[in-house]
Every structure is written in C-alpha cells, then in structure tokens.
C-alpha cells in the first residue's frame, strides 16, 4: 500500500500527459524468457494441478485471452477453458528487474515520472514536446526502444491529464497508441462505459446503471444535484470525471504504508508445523523487503482465513521500531496462537508490517504486496 507525498501544483494550461502500460506484462516477460512458448497461450499464476489447483490467474497473454481467460480468474476455471496452455508460476523478482529497466528507459523522456504499478507509469511530457505531433513521435520512440531492448510491447495513451491518458492507453490494447487532444476529450469519452473512469468499481457501476447511466455521456448529462443526492461528494467528482477534468499532478515520490505477503495453502490445514513454516517464510520475506527498502516497522498484523472463508486479522504495535525478522516471527506466532485449533483448518495466512519509519533515504517502490497461491 502506498501513500502520496508532496502537494499538488496548480494545473498548467497546456499539459501533455503520457500513460504507458505494458501488454500482458508477466506473461510477455515469460515469453521472452521462454522463446519456445511463442504463439502458445501462456498463463502465469497458481499451479493448475490438472484442474484441482486453488489459486488464481495473475495474468495471461493475448493468445490465452482468446479462450476467455483473464486476471484473477480461478486457475481451475482457466484449466477448463484452456488445458493446452503453458502454465507458469509467478517469478516476481524477474518482473521487478524488467520493470526497473523499463522505468530507466522512460525517465529521460519525461520531466516527471510517476510509477503506478509494476508495469504502468505516467510521464509528464509537457515541456518535452511542442505539440501532439511531437508527442506521437516521442511515444513511438518509447515503444520502439522497449521493443528493441526488452522485446516487449506496450500500450500508450496521451491526453491533457492523467484521467484521459490512462483511459486512452487502455483504448487499443495490445500495442496501442491513442492520442486525445484537449479539444476531443468530450467526444472521446462520451461513448465509453462509465466503469472506464478510474474509481468507478462494480458496485458504483451497478448503481449508476440502475438510474439509467451507462455511458460517460449519460453521466455528464445527468443532473448534478441528483448525483450529489445519491452519491454525496462523489456525485460531483463523477460529474467532473465525466467531463474529463482531472488536475492531479504527477507524483514522483511515494512512501509505502506497509509491506505484506499472503499464502494460500494447497490444502486447508490445521497442521501446526506447516503453519509455523509458512509464518516463518512470510515473515522472512516481509522483513527482508522492509529492510531492503530502508524501513523499520512497529506494527505487525496477521491475517488468518479458515476453510469456511471466515477471516480474522489481529495486530500488535511494538513500543520501538525494528526490522528484526525474529521479532516479527515471534510476534506473529503469538498473535496467531489463539486462532490455531486442531479442529479448524486454515486456508490462508497473511503477514503485514506497517507503522513504518525510514531508516535510510527514501526510494521509489513498486509491487509491495504480493499474493502467493500454490
Ligand atoms: P495489468 O497491466 O492490469 O495487466 P497485464 O499487463 O497482464 O495485461 P494488459 O495487457 O491488459 O495490461 O497488470 C500488470 C501485471 O500485474 C500483470 O501482468 C500481472 C499482475 N496482476 C496480477 O497479478 N493480478 C491481477 O489481478 C492483475 C490485474 C494484474
Ligand atoms: Mg499491463
């Protein structure tokens, strides 16, 4: 989890913002690493175990998407739809390495760069280009360098702000380039479904749909007072978003709020040794990541999910900041022990370190929360 630092500046009148998102990122990196898989559907995620696997698809390449596969789909379902695919497990260190190299490629193209996730970034190119024609040339150059150096394709959107640039990058995937001038924003957004606007999740979408708002055009022409009555302050924000208004700045530096790891057991278990082994492994990984990024923690939270999906979290805040793995292990076991019973099987365990304090100079971070599922 990350939090912003720095103050938003006033919107400059001629902003040019570029959003880049790598195509099928984990799967594409695997394809580069395993050229023999080229052309085949590739799925990265949990082990399918011949259809009996219990985790999810992290991502899949566009070949696999033709079979209806997508991120977060249960791996057992993916197996039903596409048993002939190549199934690979998540190799996060590799993707993080590639991600860092790509960010380094991007940096010289921007006055400011905000990395949003492992495969996604905003670039403020306002002072790098004179007009959108130059912006197009710049985007094409970025695409060509990433393809040359990493053999990866990406999709790029360019617009007058982050909101429009992000929607534009998603507009033509994979390997897309969509440029929206500030004069065309309304026309570009109008026919799109409301859920394309960031921040409108499935529940909000349903509520909007139920009052007859399906497209962004429907939203922008809806009475703002009524929207405010239904959604409170969000109503106003939705209206602004529907007009493509977004003054948020590119934030270069982020401070993490927490580091965490989760683990889904292969089979639900109440075996103490297995549980302790996983707690130790998770603590090792979380404390290492905390340390590597120059932080110490004061709060440790454990999460436990039983086989019936009943979930508990329990925290302890220490009186001192530490980065000790041993302290994390001992505290986690102490927090978990009231929940460990021989008659209750566990499905998932999670460990989180929060209440962080900086030990060394702050670095930009990405991918701070990984879920494992074997
Ligand atoms: P995305 O950019 O959302 O997806 P993608 O790059 O695989 O595909 P697209 O071409 O649509 O951009 O996410 C980046 C990576 O994050 C993705 O490769 C794998 C990981 N991820 C998960 O592990 N679980 C998820 O549910 C999602 C959405 C992504
Ligand atoms: Mg992507």
Please provide a brief summary of the model:
The chain is α+β, with helices and mostly antiparallel strands.
Portion in strands = 25-35%
What are the distinct ligands in this entry? thymidine-5'-triphosphate, magnesium ion
Global mean pLDDT: 90
Morphology: globular
Count of all domains: 4
Briefly, what CATH class of the largest domain? Alpha Beta
Catalogue the unreliable spans: 1-12, 360-374
Radius of gyration, in Å, reads 23 Å
Number of strands: 16
CATH superfamily of the largest domain: DNA polymerase, Y-family, little finger domain
The SS-based structural class is: alpha+beta
What is the helix/strand order?
EEHEEHHEHEEHEHEHHHHHEEHEEHEEE
Looking at the overall shape, the CATH architecture of the largest domain is: 2-Layer Sandwich
Count helical runs.
13
Largest sheet: 6 strands, mixed
Terminal Cα separation, in Å? 23 Å
Question: How would you characterize this protein structure?
Answer:
This protein has helices spanning 25-33, 62-65, 75-81, 92-106, 132-150, 162-169, 185-189, 202-210, 216-220, 224-231, 233-242, 272-292, 325-336; strands at residues 2-4, 17-22, 42-45, 57-60, 86-88, 112-117, 120-124, 154-159, 177-179, 254-256, 258-269, 295-306, 311-322, 346-354, 357-358, 369-373. The two termini are 23 Å apart. Strands 11, 12, 13, 14, 15 and 16 form a six-stranded mixed β-sheet that branches. The chain has a five-stranded mixed β-sheet with strand order 6-7-2-8-9. The longest helix is centred in the C-terminal third of the chain and has 21 residues, at 272-292. The protein folds into four domains: 6-23 and 93-183, Alpha-Beta Plaits (2-Layer Sandwich), CATH 3.30.70.270; 25-92, MutS, DNA mismatch repair protein, domain I; 187-242, 5' to 3' exonuclease, C-terminal subdomain (DNA polymerase, domain 1, Orthogonal Bundle), CATH 1.10.150; 258-373, DNA polymerase, Y-family, little finger domain (Dna Ligase, domain 1), CATH 3.30.1490.100. Residues 1-12 and 360-374 have low confidence and may be disordered. The protein is of the alpha+beta class and 374 residues long. β8 (154-159), α6 (162-169) and β9 form a beta-alpha-beta unit. The radius of gyration is 23 Å and the shape is globular. The structure holds thymidine-5'-triphosphate and magnesium ion.
């Amino acid at each position: 989890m990350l939090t912003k630092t720095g103050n938003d500046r006033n919107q400059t009148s001629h902003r040019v913002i570029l959003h880049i998102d790598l195509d099928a990122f984990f799967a594409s990196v695997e394809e580069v690493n395993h050229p023999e898989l080229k052309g085949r559907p590739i799925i990265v995620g949990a082990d399918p175990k011949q259809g009996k696997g219990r985790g999810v698809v992290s991502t899949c390449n566009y070949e696999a998407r033709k079979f209806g596969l997508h991120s977060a789909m249960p791996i057992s379902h993916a197996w039903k739809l596409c048993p002939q695919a190549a199934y690979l497990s998540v190799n996060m260190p590799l993707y993080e390495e590639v991600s860092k190299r790509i960010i380094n490629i991007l940096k010289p193209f921007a006055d400011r760069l905000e990395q949003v996730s492992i495969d996604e970034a905003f670039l403020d190119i306002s002072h790098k280009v004179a007009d959108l024609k130059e912006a197009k040339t710049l985007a094409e150059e970025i695409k060509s360098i990433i393809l040359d150096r990493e053999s990866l394709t990406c999709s790029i959107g360019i617009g007058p702000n982050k909101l429009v640039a992000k929607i534009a990058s998603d507009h033509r995937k994979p390997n897309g380039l969509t440029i929206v001038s500030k004069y065309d924003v309304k026309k570009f957004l109008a026919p799109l479904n409301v859920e394309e606007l960031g921040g409108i999740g499935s529940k909000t979408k349903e509520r909007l749909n139920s009052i007859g708002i399906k497209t962004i055009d429907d939203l922008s022409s809806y009475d703002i007072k009524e929207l405010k009555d239904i959604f409170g302050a969000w109503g106003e924000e939705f209206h602004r978003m529907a007009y493509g208004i977004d003054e948020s700045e590119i934030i270069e530096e982020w401070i993490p709020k927490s580091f965490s790891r989760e683990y889904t057991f292969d089979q639900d278990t109440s075996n103490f040794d297995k549980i302790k082994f996983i707690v130790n492994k998770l603590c090792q990984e979380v404390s290492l990541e905390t340390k590597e990024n120059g932080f110490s923690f004061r709060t440790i939270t454990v999460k436990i999910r039983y086989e019936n999906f009943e979930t508990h979290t329990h925290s302890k805040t220490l009186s001192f900041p530490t980065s000790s793995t041993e302290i994390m292990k001992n505290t986690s076991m102490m927090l978990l022990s009231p929940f460990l019973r021989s008659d209750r099987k566990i499905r998932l365990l999670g460990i989180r370190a929060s209440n962080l304090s900086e030990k060394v100079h702050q670095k930009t971070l990405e991918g701070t929360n990984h879920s494992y599922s074997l």
